[in-house]
Amino acid sequence: MIMTTRITIVVLLAFVLGLAAARAEPVSRREVLAAIAVLERDVTSRDAPQAAETVTRFGKESDAVLITIGEETLPWMQEDAPEAEATARAMLTAAYFAGDIKAQLARRRAADDPYSGWLAAIQAYRQIRRKEPDMVIPEIEQLIEREQAGTLRDDAERMRRQDGREQQSNMV
User: Fold this and answer.
1) Is the confidence at residue 71, as pLDDT, over 80?
2) Would you say 149 and 132 are in contact if contact means Cβ atoms under 8 Å apart?
3) DSSP state, residue 53
4) Which residues of 154-166 are buried (b: 16+ CB within 10 A; e: fewer)?
5) What was the pLDDT predicted at 15?
6) Residue 81: what pLDDT?
7) How many CB atoms lie within 10 A of CB 94?
8) Are residues 55 and 65 in contact, defined by beta-carbon separation less than 8 angstroms?
9) pLDDT digits over 94-104, tens only?
10) For the residues 153-159, what does the mean pLDDT come to?
11) What is the 3-class SS of 83-132, one letter each residue?
12) Which long-range contacts (CB under 8 A, 24 or more apart) does 9-12 make?
C-alpha cells in the first residue's frame, strides 16, 4: 500500500510539475490566463487537470514569473500523503501556482508572490471540501488559521525578503 501511494504521488507530482509530455511551443500569456480561470472556477472540474498542466508548464518555462518552491511555500506536498489525498494535494499545488502566476502577470513583474498562491490554494481547498467534506488537509487548515489571524501576508513577505537576501548572497 505504501509503495502504491508513493508511486501514485510521484506520478501526480510529475504531472503537476509539468514533467508530463511537454509541447514544443511555450505556453502563452493568454493560454495561462485561460487555464487559471478554469482552476479558479472549479479545481475539481473535468478540465482542471489539463489547466493544471498548462499553468505548471508556464510557471516552469516562462521568464515572466518566478515561483519559489519548497516546504515552506508548499507545506501540503508530502511524499507520504494518503492515496485518497494525493490528487487533491496535487491540484492544490496547481492552484498555488495559478495564484502566484496571476499576481505576477497582473503586476508585470517577475517577483514571487506566495501570499497570492496561498489564497488561491485556500480557495481551491474550499472547492474540494464542498465535493469531499471529509477530506481535511491540516497544512491548508493552518494556512486558513493564519489568514484569519492576519499573519499570512506577513509570513509571505518575510519569505520574500529572505529569498531576496539568499539570491543576493548567491550572486556575490
Assistant:
1) yes
2) no
3) H
4) ebbeebbeebeee
5) 52
6) 80
7) 29
8) no
9) 999 999 999 99
10) 92
11) HHHHHHHHHHHHHHHHHHHHHHHHHCCCCCCHHHHHHHHHHHHHHHHHHC
12) 9/79, 9/81, 9/83, 9/86, 12/86, 12/87, 12/89, 12/90
C-alpha cell at 64: 515572466
What's the rounded Cα separation, in Å, for the pair 116 and 101?
Answer: 9
Mean pLDDT computed over 131-150: 96
Percent of the chain with pLDDT over 70: 80
The domain locations on the chain are 2-171
Q: What pLDDT was estimated at residue 84?
A: 76
Residue 155, all three cell numbers: 509570513
**Amino acid (one-letter) located at 140:** I
Query: Exposed e or buried b for every residue in 38-57, given b needs 16+ CB within 10 A?
Result: bbbebbeeeebbebbbbbbb
CA 6 to chain centre: 20
Cβ-contact 66, 79 below 8 angstroms: no
Burial 119-138 (b: 16+ CB within 10 A, else e): bbbbbbbebbeeeeeeeebe
